[in-house]
């Protein structure tokens, strides 16, 4: 397994290009199942999760071609010959559940493995299933699979009332509703930019959707959807991650393609911590205002609140802030696994349930640490940028799921970082 070796202390200077959003692409790709016409995605990120979704769609009979080194995904599912999403693919990536709604809406039946949990939580899919039942689907859970059938006339428009905000369940419901007969109203819908990006793509395909980006989405079902070409929205989590690099070790970095509208709550917290964020013609320029970062309190919430996917990275910044910071993780039940690894580097963190209290120290010390999940892995790299000496982050396959070319992007702005291939 490969490791990444970071030698801290360099201030950063330069520009980092931000890729297309993994979490937008993972819902835009299954949308191809809704139409027999071609769907082409540009600005697609080159990540292992995208390759996993490609394999899944191909296993269903869809054609997926990666053009221009994978930045363009040319897809077509005019002839699906399989409606079963196997456990051996689904267990690798939970987002595989997002083929359920499209398959059900298009052909009236699907068999999809339950994804199982992951390191950060149990990750149930009950809300996905509830949404599809509200559109008339009959679901039978057995042998670890969801056996789904639409009514004989196809899915019917209905009212979906989510008791809590779920990004994936909103995406499954939205895609299914585009072909359901009649009107579907989704209440307490997720408002993430990735939801808006999906709705924009579906509208290009002929869907009738209103209210995306607000808590109530209304969909008028249509008989069929056409093809489209759609540019994947900028990855706000990669953006926030790289904005923290100059914040944590000094210097000034311009994140190309970044927009404040994607991360307003996060940018407000950076401002509070003493980090300046300036909108430029090409993106966002980030630098420390002066001296040491100040402690701030953070609570993760659904969009437009502070993103849970930036909590681990923000914790790395706050480990060397002046004062005590309290981080509350309200979305997932086990998303502080990076804390013990940061403590190996000298961080002072007290974790009680969903609350972590970070007492800032002057300096972190490089150490061998282990990545436990995607966002934890990159928070350890950020900490390594600021630490004295060498930090070796192992199990970086987690990183490859969500970040392309980390070493190239960070060394391009002056970080001392390299990838070492392991056994
Ligand atoms: C998406 O996961 C993202 N993944 C996650 O990013 C992100 O952390 C999460 O949204 C929250 O923003 C993709 O888009 C592929 P949820 P998702 O449904 O849809 C509970 C990353 O690092 N819940 O919004 O699975 C759930 O347990 C990943 O890129 C149910 O109870 O998240 C959680 O506590 C990690 N029942 C809360 O809702 C359900 O049926 C929010 O989960 C579904 C979810």
SSE order and pairing:
Elements: E1 3-7, E2 12-17, H1 22-28, E3 39-42, H2 48-59, E4 63-67, E5 72-76, E6 84-85, H3 87-90, H4 100-107, E7 109-113, H5 126-133, E8 138-142, E9 145-149, E10 159-161, H6 167-177, E11 183-187, H7 193-204, E12 208-210, E13 216-220, E14 228-231, H8 236-249, E15 251-256, H9 264-272, E16 275-279, E17 283-288, E18 298-299, H10 311-318, E19 324-328, H11 338-344, E20 348-352, E21 355-359, E22 368-370, H12 374-386, E23 390-394, H13 397-400, H14 406-411, E24 416-420
The protein binds ligand EPZ.
Residues 22-23, 26, 94-95, 121, 123-128, 164, 166-169, 308-309, 331-332, 374-375, 402 line the site of ligand EPZ.
Structure description:
The protein is an alpha/beta fold. It folds into 2 domains: 3-19 and 234-420, UDP-n-acetylglucosamine1-carboxyvinyl-transferase, Chain; 22-231, UDP-n-acetylglucosamine1-carboxyvinyl-transferase, Chain, CATH 3.65.10.10. It contains 14 helices and 24 strands. The protein has helices spanning 22-28, 48-59, 87-90, 100-107, 126-133, 167-177, 193-204, 236-249, 264-272, 311-318, 338-344, 374-386, 397-400, 406-411; strands at 3-7, 12-17, 39-42, 63-67, 72-76, 84-85, 109-113, 138-142, 145-149, 159-161, 183-187, 208-210, 216-220, 228-231, 251-256, 275-279, 283-288, 298-299, 324-328, 348-352, 355-359, 368-370, 390-394, 416-420. A 4-stranded mixed sheet has the order 22-23-1-24. Strands 2-15-17-16 form a 4-stranded mixed sheet. It has a 4-stranded mixed sheet with strand order 4-5-3-14. Strand 16 and strand 17 form a beta hairpin. Helix 6 packs parallel to helix 7 (193-204). The protein is elongated and about 65 Å long. The N and C termini lie close together (6 Å). The model has no long low-confidence stretch (mean pLDDT 96). It binds ligand EPZ.
């Amino acid at each position: 397994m490969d490791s990444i070796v970071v030698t801290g202390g360099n201030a950063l200077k330069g520009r980092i290009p931000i890729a297309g959003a993994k979490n937008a692409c993972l819902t835009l790709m299954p949308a191809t199942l809704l139409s027999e016409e071609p769907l082409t995605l540009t600005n697609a990120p080159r990540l292992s999760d995208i390759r996993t979704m490609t394999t899944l769609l191909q296993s269903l009979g869809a054609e997926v071609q990666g053009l221009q080194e994978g930045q363009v995904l040319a897809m077509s599912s005019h002839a699906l010959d399989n409606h079963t999403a196997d456990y051996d693919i689904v267990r690798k990536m939970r987002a595989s559940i997002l083929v359920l709604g499209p398959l059900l809406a298009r052909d009236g039946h699907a068999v999809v493995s339950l994804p199982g949990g992951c390191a950060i939580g149990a990750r149930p899919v009950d809300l996905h299933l509830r949404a599809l039942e509200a559109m008339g689907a009959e679901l039978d859970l057995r042998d670890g699979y969801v056996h789904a059938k639409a009514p004989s006339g196809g899915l019917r428009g209905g009212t979906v009332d989510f008791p809590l905000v779920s990004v994936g369940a909103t995406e499954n419901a939205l895609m299914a509703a585009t072909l359901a007969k009649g009107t579907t109203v989704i209440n307490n819908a997720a408002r993430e930019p990735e939801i808006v990006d999906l709705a924009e793509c579906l509208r290009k395909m002929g869907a009738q959707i209103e209210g995306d980006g607000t808590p109530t989405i209304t969909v008028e079902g249509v008989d069929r959807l056409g093809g489209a070409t759609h540019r994947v929205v900028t990855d706000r989590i990669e953006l926030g991650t790289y904005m923290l690099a100059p914040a944590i070790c000094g210097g000034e970095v311009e994140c190309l393609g970044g927009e404040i509208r994607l991360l307003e709550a996060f940018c407000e917290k950076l401002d509070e911590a003493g980090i300046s964020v300036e909108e430029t013609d090409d993106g966002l320029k980030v630098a420390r205002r002066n001296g040491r970062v100040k402690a701030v309190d953070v609570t993760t919430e659904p969009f437009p609140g502070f993103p849970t996917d930036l909590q681990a990275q923000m914790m790395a910044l706050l480990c060397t802030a002046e004062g005590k910071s309290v981080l509350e993780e309200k979305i997932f039940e086990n998303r502080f696994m990076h804390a013990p690894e940061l403590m190996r580097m000298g961080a002072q963190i007290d974790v009680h349930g969903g609350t972590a209290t970070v007492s800032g120290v002057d300096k972190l010390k490089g150490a061998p640490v282990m990545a436990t999940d995607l966002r934890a892995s990159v928070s350890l790299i950020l900490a390594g940028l600021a630490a004295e000496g060498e930090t070796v982050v192992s199990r970086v396959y987690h990183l490859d799921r969500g970040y392309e070319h980390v070493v190239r992007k960070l060394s391009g702005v002056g970080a001392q970082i390299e990838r070492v291939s392991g056994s």
